[in-house]
Amino acid sequence: MQKVLVFTDLHILPDGGTIIGLDPAARFELAMDHALAHHPDAARIVIAGDLTHNGAPAEYARLRALLSDCPLPVSLMLGNHDRRDAFNAAFPDHPRMAEGFCQQWHDLGDHRLILLDTLDEHAPDLHSGWLCPARLDWLDAALSGAAGRHVTIFTHHPPIDTGFAAMDDIGLRNRDALLSRLTRHGTVAQIISGHIHRAISGSAAGLPTAIFKSPCHQMPMQLDSPDCHLSIDEPGAYGLLLMMKTGVVVHAQDVGLPPAASLRYPD
């Protein structure tokens, strides 16, 4: 068994910046410290997009500093709040396609992690996602080369509707093109996404799909709200994937709660 730690929707701001009174960098540090203390044996950390809040160089510089002492390999993805040029300038050596998209894959024994880039900087609504033909062709090659491994797909924008009306309106616009490829290859065990700022599980074309909360601010449980910018101060969280020989087990861990001792209930 191997472990993969998953963070998403960091929304890092420059020093002194806050979102609904919360410092995204401090919240990320709290979650990262918890994850590394409890799972120092993890094989990799995946950060699934919305690395920053505005895609500004100062925000990426702060993220780079936050990750500078991380003892584990870190894979970064882009979300709708990111900006490709500023990210590339801050992380010039990070893996990317020849066309410049931030897509990569990693093999962990019986598993292959495939990380996709759903950022569309020209989205008509500013925040929805898109996978162009070049990115989808790259995905086909990554799936074909998985050699029988269990495949976990990472996207920032989920390939499912979640019931949050405003967030579903800014989802992955060509999800059918993605899902047709995933089901055709028949090796995908799990899809992992962010974007919604809630812990959600579902099924996309029969494939199990898990969405993780942000370490910072969460989406309030108001399904019919037309406002995709609503936020609430609930505990931050990260994801833990257990890569088993038989497949993938998904856990979500809240952080920042008051310490509590474990108690044993009577038999």
Describe the structure.
- 40% of the residues are buried.
- The chain has a six-stranded mixed beta sheet with strand order 4-5-6-7-9-8, covered by helices on one side. A five-stranded mixed beta sheet has the order 3-2-1-10-11.
- The chain has one domain (2-255): Metallo-dependent phosphatases (Purple Acid Phosphatase, chain A, domain 2).
- A hairpin with a 4-residue loop joins β10 (236-243) and β11.
- It has six helices and eleven strands.
- The protein has helices at 24-38, 57-67, 84-90, 133-144, 165-168, 175-185; strands at residues 2-7, 44-48, 74-77, 104-108, 111-115, 150-155, 188-193, 200-204, 207-211, 236-243, 248-255.
- With 267 residues, the protein is α/β, with parallel strands linked by helices.
- Keywords: Hydrolase, Iron, Metal-binding.
- It is an enzyme of class 3 (hydrolase).
- Residues 3-198 form the Calcineurin-like phosphoesterase domain.
